[in-house]
Task: inverse folding
């Protein structure tokens, strides 16, 4: 355990040090990569609450990621074009304030998670996976076929949204914003896993029948976890839209759901810092191998296979176990 | 006799053509250990499952402290004070002994929607949990993951979790199953004390334990109760002899 906290500290230090080095070396692209890691890790931290703590194998977290992204994109687009989002039943203006966008993104993602969770949590096992996937795909096809916001082509907004006192166009400042939010989400997950709620959630994953016999209804516990999970992933989606100043249906697709799941599994399911390790490794591989061969994803698949077959604890599990033995 | 805490009348349950529970009537009164014995497949576990709400009964009534509970779901019945243990040990394997019992205390408290404060820093959970762990004979094993416990220790953990619910009635499904003679003796002593806290409906195959503990015994055969009485009455009952006791004795 001690060793795991060391690994966590090193991971976090690396996530801070790499962009600082890039800043000094004048490599803004590396800062962007680190920002991507922080955002993907945040999405993974969200999923990890449902998947790692609750054992809820959601294959539809792209729904929340994409909804968060579209909230950011749509609000920014309306602001840029000086058109209200709607005038009925009352006027809602667009905005380019991150502090206004984030709560809306989390609210929308949370509502979607409440709805999807309320229906999908009545099933379990492979049906749960399929129902979550189906909902995300519905949103995906809806985004493709809805022309108002770019449909298949997606929606660009040319100015990154603003944050008071910061220049969000400066890569290192935008990175810092993402990092702080990631740290906040990590702190929240850390608290949740030690809390009464976490105890009930993890208990229900291990033995739902037993939890029931102790007077606790797993459904409400799981639904709450699913909603919090969706909100965090939705926030990550809003940041991702801002990183690219672009949202597209791709953010809602099952590829995205799969990638978020890969971050969690590579790093170690249920490990607090697992998503950082997973997202970091993913981006590293994509960057290093993506240039060499288009087939880097095949290698990723192989790596996943190795992790799932031989190292269930993921990267963090492997590293902390080695240390315990040695 | 005092008013029963648990009163079962005409309870029936079929699995297809099989009548697993056939018009069972049974009382559990304050202060007693009421043993439920019968051959394998007689329907003892099925009866317990209907009482706690894991299975729905087809007909009949289940009254708990005067209230009909047949329509409540399992968590609601647990919260009213019906604690059960499982025939096959059923615990949270990754949790430590302390976490398992703390979760039971938490279930009884009804407050699971607390997100920030650490559960194991909460004296309202941990103090009672440690007390019940000690009561069940697991003192010193608090930090051990349940998966690493011996079989006998896991049975004790089941008892500690049942105790932690501070129930009005215990429903224990073969708590001695697979325990060595020493473990059975310890558990017999614990159960004997337990009846002071709440009456026990005890399903048990270990006849030494049953005869040592039971105030009353009901004999279940093919889903029907064929006799209810004191230890001596049951020993003397000819039907019981032929249907059940005769096989072993
Ligand atoms: N869910 C079920 N579906 C079908 N038959 C069942 C089910 N549960 C139990 N039974 C049958 O009901 C009978 C009683 O089982 P059980 O209550 O486990 O007996 P006991 O606990 O007395 O050994 C057995 O014949 C068993 O096979
Ligand atoms: Mg049985």
Result:
């Amino acid at each position: 355990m001690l060793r795991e906290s060391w690994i966590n500290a090193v991971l976090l230090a690396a996530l801070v040090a790499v962009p600082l080095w890039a800043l000094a070396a004048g490599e803004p692209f590396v800062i962007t990569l680190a920002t991507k890691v922080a955002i993907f890790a945040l999405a993974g931290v969200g999923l990890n609450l449902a998947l790692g703590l609750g054992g809820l194998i959601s294959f539809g977290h792209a729904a929340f990621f994409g909804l968060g992204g579209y909230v950011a994109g749509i609000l920014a687009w309306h602001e840029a074009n000086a058109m209200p989002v709607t005038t009925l039943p009352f006027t809602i203006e667009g905005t380019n304030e991150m502090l206004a966008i984030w709560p809306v993104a989390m609210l929308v993602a949370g509502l979607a998670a409440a709805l999807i969770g309320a229906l999908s949590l009545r099933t379990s096992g492979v049906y749960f996976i399929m129902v979550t996937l189906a909902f995300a795909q519905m949103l995906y096809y809806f985004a493709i076929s809805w022309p108002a916001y770019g449909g298949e082509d997606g929606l660009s907004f040319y100015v990154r949204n603003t944050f008071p006192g910061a220049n969000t166009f400066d890569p290192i400042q935008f990175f810092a914003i993402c990092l702080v939010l990631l740290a906040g989400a990590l702190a929240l997950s850390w608290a949740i896993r030690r809390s009464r709620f976490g105890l009930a959630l993890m208990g229900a994953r291990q033995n739902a029948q037993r939890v029931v016999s102790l007077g606790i209804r797993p459904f409400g516990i799981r639904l709450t976890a699913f909603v919090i999970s969706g909100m965090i992933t939705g926030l990550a989606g809003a940041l991702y839209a801002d990183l690219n100043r672009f949202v597209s249906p791709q953010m809602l697709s099952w590829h995205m759901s799969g990638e978020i799941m890969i971050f969690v599994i590579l790093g170690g399911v249920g490990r607090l810092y697992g998503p950082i390790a997973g997202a970091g490794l993913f981006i590293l591989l994509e960057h290093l191998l993506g240039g060499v061969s288009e087939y880097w994803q095949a290698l990723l698949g192989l790596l996943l296979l190795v992790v799932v077959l031989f190292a269930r604890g993921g990267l963090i599990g492997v590293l902390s176990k080695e240390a315990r033995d040695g | 006799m005092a008013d029963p805490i648990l009163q079962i009348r005409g309870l029936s349950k079929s699995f297809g053509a099989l009548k697993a529970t056939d018009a069972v009537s049974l009382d559990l009164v304050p202060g007693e250990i009421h043993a439920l014995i019968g051959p394998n497949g007689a329907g003892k576990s099925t009866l317990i499952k209907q009482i706690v709400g894991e299975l729905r009964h087809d007909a009949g009534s289940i009254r708990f402290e005067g209230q009909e509970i047949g329509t409540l779901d399992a968590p609601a019945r647990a919260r009213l004070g019906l604690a059960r243990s499982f025939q096959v040990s059923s615990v949270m394997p990754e949790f430590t002994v302390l976490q398992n019992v703390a979760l039971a205390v938490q279930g009884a408290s009804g407050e699971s929607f607390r997100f920030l404060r650490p559960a194991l820093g909460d004296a309202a959970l941990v103090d009672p949990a440690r007390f019940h762990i000690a009561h069940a004979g697991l003192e010193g094993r608090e930090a051990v993951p349940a998966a690493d416990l011996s079989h006998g220790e896991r049975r004790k953990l089941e008892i500690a979790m049942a105790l932690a619910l501070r129930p009005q009635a215990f429903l224990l499904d073969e708590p001695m199953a697979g325990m060595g003679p020493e473990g059975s003796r310890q558990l017999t002593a614990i159960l004997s004390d337990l009846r002071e806290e709440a009456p026990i409906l005890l399903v048990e195959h270990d006849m030494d334990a049953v005869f040592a503990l039971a105030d009353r015994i009901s004999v279940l055969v093919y889903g029907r109760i064929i006799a209810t009485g004191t230890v001596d009455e049951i020993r003397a009952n000819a039907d019981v002899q032929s249907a059940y006791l005769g096989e072993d004795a």
Summary: The two ends of chain B are 32 Å apart (CA to CA).
